[in-house]
Design a protein that fits this description.
- The protein is mainly α.
- The chain has helices at about 5-15, 20-25, 30-35, 45-60, and strands at about 60-65, 70-75.
- It has a two-stranded antiparallel ribbon.
- The longest helix is centred in the middle third of the chain and has 13 residues, at about 45-60.
- The protein is globular.
Length: about 80
Amino acid sequence: MIVGAQIRGARGLIGWSQGRLAEAAGLSLPTIKRMEGSIGPGRSSAENVAAVVMALERAGVTFISANGDGPGVRLRKMKGRKSG
């Protein structure tokens, strides 16, 4: 399960607004705001969480599960993308 901070962090990495994520995931802006809030995506339907994850992954985000260091996000290495 992802957490709200991962969604916010993922958007930051790719420069998306909440509105842009809502559009890409096919969800409403209030749904994205709730998912990023203190309660997180846990109160959202599994389908809505999956839509957010898929939209962010299509944009190049990789979700890192909690493996002792906590959950996180990073950008995939993509051909042609400059680092730095």
